[in-house]
Amino acid sequence: MTSSPLKLRPSKKLQMQTKAGLPTTSRAGYKHKQCRHRQEGAGRSKFGGVWKELRGGHPEVGRATWFAEAGCKQEVPGNWGDRLLTMKFLQLFGTVKPIVIGMVHVKALPGTPGSRLPVAQIIEEACHEAEIYKNAGIDGIMVENMHDIPYTFNTGPEITATMATICTAVKQACPHLPLGVQILSCANNQALAVALAAGLDFIRAEGYVFSHVADEGFVNACAGDLLRYRKAIGAEHIQIFADIKKKHSSHAVTADMSVSETAKAAEFFLADGLILTGTSTGQEADQRDLKECGQSVRIPVLIGSGVTLGNMEKYIDANGFIIGSYFKKDGHWSNSVVYDKVSSFMDKVKKLRK
């Protein structure tokens, strides 16, 4: 007597309802979350289950409803693939365009030629500027050691340690704002370590893809090593906004590579966003570069120099502005932040978002 093979009846997936009333499955593990900086005390965003849901979409729920229930003020345009690549940005800032990041240029750090102040005073001044930005309604803040001229590739432990201390203090002063850091020059690993230690959200990375010649010397691409380091230290929640064809640099060695091809390479190498600049600090970026990148990649594109109250409309298609010089007294990066300039700028950009 032969036995018939055992037949298993496939069970239906258990359907659940989240608090937001969104359909999901036990496999997807969707968990409703608000935008990080909109929710007091919010922890690190986790995207695994959310991304599984997004890949298939939500046929039962309208797109606008989904983003509203997720605590975000604006829906990501495009298809679901576009949404996947911008979701981290959207959850951090609450909108995809155009957000404003104000620069805190900390005074010269210990061991650098321009160092004059004790660390305690450097921290106090950095926190004061951060609070000016916060009170003026800025969307985010980035801390940078721009006074450490001339820059070097040999960033010492004293720089990393001091930047970590400063960033921790800024985080305490502005606990609910998205915060980032850049450490010059090309100290991208150190910036990631500082961001992780201080609880920051993003870094600005130089030399992410392709080589170029900067005033500090020859810069090689770092994406492969940088992302492996991010993985190794458990910092994958920290976003990396990568400069392409960056300011203060010669790009003759890659003159045959267009800005769009460079942008595509950065996207392919898993950058979380791109930064376009003019030729130097405070100089306007080329509108054609913004248009070209916007048509070539799906990750966020930010303008990293030259944006002012008078020209912001030229860059309204960007996902964000990183502004230092314009917000400073007399429009020079080395001066102090002026509240009225930040406030007026934010009033105008918020109107343009509508």
From TrEMBL:
<feature type="compositionally biased region" description="Polar residues">
    <location>
        <begin position="14"/>
        <end position="27"/>
    </location>
</feature>
<protein>
    <submittedName>
        <fullName>Uncharacterized XB5931222</fullName>
    </submittedName>
</protein>
<feature type="region of interest" description="Disordered">
    <location>
        <begin position="1"/>
        <end position="30"/>
    </location>
</feature>
<dbReference type="InterPro" id="IPR011060">
    <property type="entry name" value="RibuloseP-bd_barrel"/>
</dbReference>
<dbReference type="Pfam" id="PF03437">
    <property type="entry name" value="BtpA"/>
</dbReference>
<dbReference type="InterPro" id="IPR005137">
    <property type="entry name" value="BtpA"/>
</dbReference>
<comment type="similarity">
    <text>Belongs to the BtpA family.</text>
</comment>
